Amino acid sequence: MDGIVIDLFVESRYQVNRKKIKLAVTQLLIEQGIAGPAELSVAVVGDRKMRGLYKKYKGEDKTTNVLSFPLAEGKSTHLPTNVLRLGDVVISYPQIIKEAARDDVMVDEKIEELILHGTRHLLGIHH
After folding, report:
1. Is 64 strand, coil or helix?
2. Helix (H) or strand (E) holding 54
3. Nearest Cα to 90, choosing from 4, 20, 23, 10?
4. How far is the C-alpha of 19 from the C-alpha of 105, rounded, in Å?
5. Does residue 76 belong to any structural domain of this protein?
6. What Rg, from alpha-carbon coordinates, does the chain have?
């Protein structure tokens, strides 16, 4: 667990349980046989930022709930330091709020669900 680094960026106006997110991602990585050294980043942003990312990388002017940016699609990336760098997961907090209300679940549960979904994509695990 010490070898897994999760960089978490949260826009200041959004409340998330950082400890719960890091624990959930770490557990998923360990379940997938990754004990470290490994790192990935998670960002919790607003719809404007998410719309900009979606437009830039997907070519459509819309927002979404989660985007994943793997450093290497479907395979691990080891740089000279021998750290497995998985990539980035970005979630839209406003979309999470809407989906949590729609699905009648707690916001923290929806955040965790979508961050784990995005992390699975970084690992090459798709639906």
Report:
1. coil
2. helix 47-58
3. 10
4. 19
5. yes
6. 14
Nearest residue to 43 via CA among 120, 108, 117, 115: 115
Looking at the 3D structure of the chain, how many domains does it have?
1
Q: Environment class of residue 51 by beta-carbon count within 10 Å: exposed (0-12), middle (13-18) or buried (19+)? A: middle
How many C-beta atoms lie closer than 10 Å to residue 6's C-beta?
Answer: 21
Higher pLDDT, 75 or 58: 58
CATH assignment at residue 97: 3.40.390.30
**pTM for the full model?**
0.87
In whole angstroms, what is the distance from residue 50 CA to residue 3 CA?
30
pLDDT tens track for 77-125:
545 567 888 999 999 999 999 999 999 999 999 999 999 999 999 998 8
